[in-house]
Design a protein that fits this description.
The complex is a heterodimer of chains A (309) and B (521).
Chain A (H helix, E strand, L loop, with lengths): L18 H21 L6 H4 L1 E7 L6 H9 L6 E6 L1 E10 L5 H15 L4 E8 L1 H29 L2 H25 L5 H31 L5 H33 L5 H28 L18
Antiparallel strand pairs in A: 1-3, 1-4, 2-3
Chain B lengths: L5 H18 L22 E2 L1 H4 L1 E8 L1 H22 L4 E3 L7 E5 L5 H10 L4 E4 L4 E6 L1 H25 L6 E5 L3 E7 L4 H8 L5 E5 L6 H7 L5 E5 L9 E5 L4 E2 L3 E9 L2 E8 L1 H13 L5 E5 L2 E4 L11 E4 L5 H13 L6 E9 L1 H30 L1 H24 L2 E2 L1 H30 L4 H33 L2 H36 L7
Parallel strand pairs in B: 1-19
Antiparallel strand pairs in B: 2-8, 2-18, 3-4, 4-6, 5-6, 7-8, 9-12, 9-15, 10-11, 13-14, 14-17, 15-16
Helix pairs in contact in B: 1-11, 5-9, 10-11, 10-12, 11-12, 11-14, 12-13, 12-14, 13-14
The chains are: A alpha+beta (309), B alpha+beta (521).
Chain lengths: 309, 521
């Protein structure tokens, strides 16, 4: 049996020709994400906001309205009640209570009491205001520090143009993934933050593969115009880029469909981020090198090292 | 070169064999092997609380209150000395910022400062004019906090042990926090109830001159205070009691829940000194009320009818059976040196944990099957080699996690699934490169060799950047996120071994044995 080639061997898409379109598309997506982030804002989960979350299993399908009346009458502010995967599985979330840690404790006790003995509490989480703001801070730090370290690594390994282009692509992916959360209103918690960081790692991974090839071809084809060389590099790594994204997506889709409700938001972020990351490493990162005026500065001695290929 | 030296081949096989041996216990019923020795195989992966069910609590010890108490005592000690020297002074309200005393006559200030300076070692003197402020220096402060946390840890441990669960973990975190993890706990509210209380119990005499209501109207008699009743069922909302502690809860040695007249009560027993004091007080104050004060609330204030000499007694109150159990537990375990706050709590019931494990396992296996099939379709024989490496990689991840006793969490399972997708990346890179080299007309051996060689730096760069993200996640993340970072990081490292060395050995062996004339890839 002849193995399947997802991308034909002689693929030759003139990506650089369309780069203005990609820039516009990306710019619109990034600006929309940032704009929405500041206007609509993220739907932060209790990890960052502080508050209470209780997941219950009821005997038979849950009566959401009755639950809403029951818990709404406790005077604990906004109570969000939603079905969670199954009709007898309900997720209850309470906003952060006014006052300090004790107030949260009291609210959780009140909810548990009001729910009574008929339901099974499958999970309960309480995040006090102190921990909530600490987690938010740690989250911001971890994003900034990872981006910084990745940039330093790329800078050490490549020319500065590559470092800037890869971090631009990275920011592009992270911002649009966050924008995805803003638009869909999917809850943003610790797990989704981890997903965003993984997207960062993955996106840079994809970009680095193409950049490695560009660096190699810069040495090999000394007479080729830079845009043509970039196109050639993108095309010759295209099979790999799509294959890897495809296998990763296969695994993630299995997780999304069957992995349970608790990590659905997390896998959704990963799936979206990987699609965006693949797009950016092909259509954004490499064309950006032209804008950054990438030049050859390879010493003569290294010339023709692989010219016998 | 495709050529493998014997020892290199042996090393690759040895790593694989070790992986299988260390991962194996995870597929056998637990307890198949003794698990005492730290580096021999036999250990299973540690499941996180979100997978096996249990409670995680983050508590903060109110160290300010420890300081306040200590500064209060220090101020008292200094004032006693000042009184002996006839220096008139006024105490200030105790704060966590130091022991503060105001000296009334300016001419005494110099002498007073001298007394305050030498009152206790490791203190610093400050304050302006006629105010004296004594604070602990860094050394004494550290020691004070460390001791308070150590005591709190001990008390928390005793309390949690009383719940009778297996392997609770109680650890200090940062300066003044304690993390409690109790696996397999059905009812987290019980844990909340016993950890949320200081359980400082003291006995005070009830003031017999006035009622609390009178005192509110006409002013407190000196040396008294008003405390609320823990339970208003008996119609009394507040008590006026003497400030002086007649017997302290520190003298308790045992406490048990029991019944009196069919109602749940809590019995207690004092040590010799406490028993003697208790006998003395009850002999001299017949007819007065004895208030039992727990954490600033009066549980009950029975009338002393006769001397209680044996050092035993019971506490009656409006208890349910559960409350009587909890109170006696708290008294047995002792009081916390300072109040604690619950900052964070995450509890997962055992049913949900089991469901999560099953869903995660199913998704991981399904994802694996997809990827395996796809690799064979795309790369034929080479795909099979990559699949063998992929399976080996999973085994290695399990093995490393078992050896390190790393914790597997639900996001951790997602991390493994993600590595399944990403582990084949190295092979995709290599195989695509081999295809290219073949297209460029190189020989079979040369193509394979060049494929591995040129893909190497790319694989390294790509994996290191992901590893950076994983390490940052590990150092900043908490609980479940750490679990994700751990599996991701381990998976990246083991995949470099399996995807590069193992597939290379497999391909080299195949090329040597069957000397292919054409490469179907």
């Amino acid at each position: 049996m002849k193995p399947l080639h997802l991308i034909p061997d002689d693929v030759n898409v003139p990506f650089l020709k369309f780069r203005k379109i990609f820039y516009i598309v990306s710019l619109v997506m990034v600006l929309a994400s940032v704009g929405m982030f500041f206007t609509k804002g993220l739907n932060f989960g209790i990890d960052f906001r502080g508050g209470i979350l209780v997941e219950i299993k009821t005997n038979g399908p849950a009566d959401i309205n009755a639950l809403r009346d029951n818990l709404g009458s406790l005077g604990l502010g906004d109570v969000s009640i939603q079905e969670f995967g199954e009709p007898d599985d309900v997720l209850i979330q309470l906003q952060r209570q006014d006052g300090e840690e004790e107030a949260q404790m009291a609210a959780l006790a009140a909810v548990t009491k009001a729910l009574g003995e008929d339901v099974t509490i499958r999970r309960s989480e309480l995040v006090g205001p102190k921990v909530g703001s600490e987690l938010k801070e740690a989250g911001v730090y971890s994003v900034v520090i990872s981006l910084f370290l990745i940039m330093v690594y790329i800078w050490i390994r490549f020319e500065w143009q590559f470092a800037i282009a890869s971090v631009a692509a990275l920011l592009h992916d992270v911002l649009i993934t966050i924008g995805f959360f803003v638009i869909t209103g999917v809850q943003f918690d610790l797990a989704t933050l981890a997903a965003v960081l993984t997207v960062a790692g993955y996106s840079i991974n994809d970009t680095v593969v193409v950049f490695d090839r560009i660096r190699e071809y810069l040495r090999k084809f000394r007479k080729m115009e830079i845009p043509d060389l970039l196109d050639l590099s993108i095309n010759s790594t295209l099979a790999r880029t799509t294959m890897t994204s495809f296998t990763t997506l296969l695994a993630l889709i299995a997780l999304f469909v069957f992995g349970g409700e608790a990590i659905r938001g997390f896998t959704m972020a990963l799936i979206f981020g990987i699609v965006i990351g693949t797009y950016s490493s092909i259509c954004v990162a490499s064309p950006l090198l032209v804008v950054l005026r990438l030049k050859r500065k390879i010493p003569e001695a290294e010339e023709g090292q692989e010219a016998n290929a | 070169m495709l050529y493998f030296t014997k020892w290199k081949a042996a090393l690759v096989l040895l790593v694989c064999a070790l992986g299988v041996i260390y991962a194996a216990p995870n597929f056998l019923p637990s307890g198949t092997f003794p698990t005492e020795s730290s580096y021999l195989p036999g250990k299973q992966i540690n499941l996180g609380l979100d997978l096996r069910g249990g409670s995680h609590m983050l508590l903060e010890v109110d160290t300010d209150s420890v300081l306040r108490e200590r500064y209060d005592a220090l101020a008292d000690a200094i004032r006693t000395e000042l009184r002996q020297e006839q220096i008139r002074n006024r105490p200030r309200e105790a704060t966590e910022n130091g022991a503060e005393i105001t000296i009334l006559r300016p001419e005494d200030v110099e002498k007073a400062r001298e007394i305050a300076r030498t009152a206790e070692p490791n203190t610093e003197l400050s304050g302006e004019g006629n105010n004296i402020v004594v604070t602990y220096n860094e050394v004494a402060y550290r020691e004070l906090i460390d001791r308070a946390i150590a005591q709190s840890l001990e008390v928390v441990r005793r309390r949690v042990d009383e719940l009778g669960t297996t392997e609770p973990s109680i650890q200090r975190q940062g300066e003044n926090r304690i993390v409690v993890q109790v696996p397999g706990l059905d009812d987290p509210s019980r844990l909340r109830a016993i950890l949320g209380r200081t359980a400082k119990m003291n006995f005070h005499l009830v003031n017999n001159e006035k009622t609390a209501a009178d005192a509110r109207a006409t002013g407190l008699p000196p040396g008294t205070m008003i405390l609320p009743s823990a339970d208003e069922g008996d119609g009394i909302r507040e008590y006026l009691i003497d400030r002086r502690i007649v017997v302290s809860g520190d003298n308790l040695v045992d406490s048990q829940p029991t019944f009196s007249d069919g109602r749940p009560v809590v019995s207690f027993r004092f040590d010799a000194a406490g028993g003697a004091r208790f006998g003395d007080i009850t002999s001299k104050n017949s007819g007065r009320g004895l208030a039992i004060v727990l954490d600033g609330e009066v549980i009950s204030a029975p009338r002393i009818n006769e001397p209680i000499l044996g050092g035993n007694g019971i506490i009656t109150g409006q208890f349910s059976v559960q409350e009587a159990n909890d109170l006696s537990l708290l008294l047995r375990a002792g009081a916390l040196p300072a109040p604690m706050q619950i900052l964070e709590e995450r509890s997962v019931g055992p049913g949900l944990g089991q469901d999560s494990v099953e869903a995660g396992e199913f998704a991981a296996i399904l994802g694996l099957v997809f990827v395996i099939a796809f690799m064979v379709i795309s790369y034929g024989r080479f795909g099979i080699y990559a699949d063998i490496a992929l399976m080996m990689n999973l085994i290695l991840v399990l093995a490393v996690m078992s050896v390190l006793q790393a914790t597997l969490t639900l996001p951790g399972i997602a991390g493994i699934v993600l590595t399944v997708g990403m582990a084949v990346d190295a092979n995709v890179l290599i195989f695509e490169r081999i295809r290219e080299e073949r297209r460029n007309g190189r020989s079979i051996i040369n193509s394979i060799d060049a494929g591995y060689r040129s893909a190497m730096s790319t694989i390294l760069d790509a994996n290191i950047t992901t590893l950076i993200a994983a390490l940052v996640l590990f150092s900043f993340g908490s609980g479940p996120i750490k679990g994700f970072a751990v599996t991701l990081a381990i998976g990246i490292i083991t995949s470099m071994f399996s995807a590069i060395w193992l597939t290379r050995l497999l391909i080299a062996t195949w090329v040597k044995r069957s000397r292919p004339t054409e490469l179907v890839i």
